[in-house]
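quick one, two chains, predict together pls
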Amino acid sequence: MTGTAPAIELRGISKAFGPVQANKDISIRVMPGTIHGIIGENGAGKSTLMSILYGFYKADKGEIFIHGQKTVIPDSQAAIAAGIGMVFQHFKLVENFTVLENVILGAEDGRLLRPSLARARKELKRLAEEYELNVDPDAVIEDIGVGMQQRVEILKALYRQADILILDEPTGVLTPAEADHLFRILDNLRNGGKTIILITHKLREIMEITDTVSVMRRGQMTATVTTAETSPEELAELMVGRKVLLRVDKAPAQPGDVVLAVENLNVTDEKGVQKLRDVSLSIRAGEILGIAGVAGNGQSELLEVLGGMCTATGRITLNGDDIDLSGRQSDGQSRRARGIAHVPEDRQREGLIMDFHAWENVAFGYHTDPAWRRGPLMDNAALQADTARKMEKFDVRPPDPWLAAKNFSGGNQQKIVVAREIERNPTLLLVGQPTRGVDIGAIEFIHNQIVALRDQGAAVLLVSVELDEILSLSDRVVVMFDGQIMGDGPASTANQIGLGCLMAGMGGADTTAMAGWTISDAAAPELMQEG
Amino acid sequence: MDYMTLLLILDSTVRLGTPLLLACLAGLFSERAGIFDIGLEGKMLAAAFFSGAVAAVSGSVWLGLLAGIGASLVLSALHGLASITFRGNQLISGVAVNFLAAGMTVVIAQDWFHQGGRTPSLMGGGRFTPITLPFAETLQDVPVIGPLYYHLISGHTALVYLAFACVPATWWLLYRTRFGLRLRAVGENPAAVDTAGVSVVGLRYAAVAICGILCGIAGAYLATALQAGFVKDMTAGRGYIALAALIFAKWRPWYALSATMLFGLLQAVALRYQNIDLGSFTIPVQVMDALPYILTVVILAGFVGKAIPPRAGGEPYIKER
């Protein structure tokens, strides 16, 4: 490592927001031509650190060196000038502009657009050939997929001559195939001499692509290690500060009778787009059925129909009895009365009322229960005591029923919702994205609670965009694409590649190789050429 | 209806549509940059008063025009300060501008001129005079084209020609220049502009300033070209009609021309045919006068197709992590 200066060197970066120390004395060195991972739980300070590097925030203390030169980065303009490009988790693209227009925005050659557009078209062609970054320059952003949009973001950075690329949670919205393509691009960029910083909370990605990795915990850099010399278990321990079980420890399922049977479910939204097409599935007692799929392929609508948040046509039975799909008994209250508990996908919007106290949130949905009634009023004292008990059991921190929901961390908010639903001993538990934005320690806890409920004989429907979560938690897996079921089979024989194909709506050899799987005719037989 | 009547109606369509066109383009710049501007009305009114007042006192219509633009720019700056710098609610800020202009113009007019809230009638150099285009007189007798050229195309004030020239100019600026690209982007996704290293605040102020200039011209046109002097509330809701036309036009310059001329036509028809006799009953004049406003309501109620406003419109930009 002698001779060349690090592409990026941070020395003693500190940043506080009021009393919260987001970054504390952080120092890292990233060598040119390498991929450096930064891993840490939500709120560990990764994003703040990168925002400082990209000029969104000014560090309270510390110095930044780019290629050995001390550099001050007061705004994004300076970061771009220093050769830093950033691909945000939420893309910063103008939706109704073409790819070309997005690429030149802010980096035009002169007052008139025509010459800039012509040069960008040529440059894009060159970059496409060099790095496998194929994008139609005249496509409008809102018409292309997220994988493609992400490539546009990378192209934007490269067009601005960036040689240091920061990617913030880049694979969160991608299918496994798209993620693989992204990693190939990153690999090409590394071979082309670019330096890449990859921020993620997915250990598998870190192990797969990075050269070195830094772990952050509570605003501090706890370790920087060479990827080849570490293991996922070690990284997880460094992130959380204690030993974590990465696999869910569960006994084989003991499936009983069919609890939930869904037949030919169809949902059309108000714009006339069909969100669910003839979906049929069943879940037995003591079984966890995982629904895999890229976000927006009908899983949310399935949860909403079952949870009583949206109407549908078709037939659903619970323990053999019909469930009302569009009439007066199709609301959430009726569903709860039938023993269907629902942990919604978006806890902040649908699971909790953020400004209300924890005990009020724990009461919601069940507040009409006669057990909580005292004459014409609600028995608040009993509800508060009950909440305190649940918070204790689910290890919600701080265990204060009077704290507003918004003042809990993401993991603890989710624990409140999960506690509310699981503690009713439902016959059917609907769980959407149970661990989205939840730290590793809490993930472990929530997973164990779901498995415990299963072992008591409840049926569980799990919707998650995290394939790892689906594979480790489910007994059976159903893959959805474009509102249809592409295939279903046991989780034990499923693998990432086969599921990845189905999630993209494709069948083929990789999917039929999974033993015990039924592949739908709707799955395209051949691999489609990627654009 | 004979050819001559048609020409005269179209001629007054152009005269009545011009302030709407200018205000509509003003709104287009502002809203394309993500700043909703319900204060077009107030800016026009203030510009009408100050242009009328300065033209009356100085006797120069050009000084009047400058004063009108100046007054409108001051109100624009106010709107910008509230909605861009202080990230306030753009509707409330716009309504405040309207109230401010409605009250202020009458009070100042009364204080300065003591004529019941109006400015003295403008004469001579205090008004924009019609421009007769070359050969208009000589070609007048050529069939069809002659009268068309003489009555419809020729014989308007400089501001009318300016307003019409603004349409292609706006199109060119929006779609062919760097400024236009950035302006459109900042109204759709300011975060994209910000991370590209371009100032969101700067772009939005520029847009609001252009809006102010165009509103100023529109207001000056009312007081110094369409009429001879300022009278109380002389904008008569034109700012709101321009907003309706803007939605109708889907925030595009050429459509804005058609939309505003449609409103102009309705006003022209209402002026010409005060009572329409349908034999059994007569459509009263009030119905005719209300036509443009009825159309405004219909358009705003969303009966005319789907209009997608700039996505970041109305939202103050707050930098996120």
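Chain B has a mean pLDDT of 91.
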